[in-house]
Amino acid sequence: MRSTECFTMQNNIPYELSDYVLEKYFHETGIKQGWLPENNKCALIAVSGGGDSIALLWLFKKFYRGPVLTIHINHGIRGQESDEDAEFVKNFTDNVIVKNVKVPEERLKGESIEAAARRIRLNEICNEAKNFGCECVFLGHNRDDLAETVLFNLLRGTGIRGAVGITESTDLDGIKFYRPLLGLRREFLREILRVRNISWREDSTNNDAKYTRNFIRLKLLPEIEKHINSSAIEHLATFGEDMRSIRDNEDALSTELFERSQGGQDRKFLRTLNENEIALVIREAGRRLKLKTLDRGRANELAKLILAPKSFIFQWCKGVTITSKNGKIIFTDKRGNEN
User: What are phi and psi of 282, to 5 degrees?
Assistant: First the structure.
């Protein structure tokens, strides 16, 4: 093994930022998350131009043996600044797919601009992954993002799913999305780039504290670190990771009970379960029907109705109701379709 001194002196790059350490992290994370060994699978890297995604792209260009493609989504929200981000990414690397979308125009009624941007971005990335035969997409969420999301979810009210924060992988329409940087801090990723004289773009809206997530990052967490615990971000991230195994067990139980209850429709079977187990089945049914997620309180309210001996009607959201009929639980949408 080469010495620490050797790495420290090479190109004046500190050992903890050296190619040797980063390659080790890259391969250990890939094996843990399941995208290594890749066997020459195409990797599609989502790059905004910010420090996190540029560091992610650099790691894959440096250490990934299979083909690497880059995708950039121009949301059309920040005008010229957005166009400059797209141009920066095109000039930064080769094999770039740039998709121009108009988030403000495609936003659904009642949908926030941030939620619309995320929905459209993921759909576009998923479609392009299929077009280019990429089974895996890689996103640049880091450890700070994980901690901020855990805190945000806890403050607005959440159960086990929200307490996880950000998962290491997500399935979307047959495409696997991975987040290899969840073990690395935001500033560390920028140091990787600084010591190698690699530039990146900063999104000006990230400094606007009127957005809740920005407020948490810019105002709330610094105060928590200053007055309560200087390691708050690491503790929050670790808590999210600890909750992941509990969520995995809950998801497995949800799937089992959902199938045994004939897709959540067999009221007789459901009434052999306890309230929390019924709530799991209800939420699983909602996910599969792509309905808005019920919060834990309303899911428990519906569970109580199912356990009671009387028939009932429950409004899940506008246009979607749940009723009991001949021993079955019926989901009815606004067009009268029953599931």
Answer: -60, -45
pTM higher than 0.90, yes or no? no
**Residue 173 corresponds to which amino acid?**
D
- Tokens of residue 216, six digits: 């948490």
In whole angstroms, give the CA distance from residue 317 to residue 131.
35
Strand partners, 99: 73
CB 58 within 8 A of CB 140: no
Q: How many CB atoms neighbour CB 2 within 10 A?
A: 10
Higher-pLDDT residue of 280 and 3 is 280
Is residue 272 very low, low, confident or very high in pLDDT (cuts 50, 70, 90)? very high
Sign of CA dihedral 113, 115, 121, 123: negative
| Residue in the structure block whose two tokens are 């159960």 | 159
Query: If DSSP codes are grouped into helix, strand and coil, which group holds residue 196?
Result: coil
Q: Which residue has the tokens 């009723």?
A: 323
Give how far Cα 337 sits from Cα of 129, 207, 320, 330, 334, Å: 33, 46, 10, 10, 7
3-state secondary structure of 209: coil
Strand partners, 72: 98
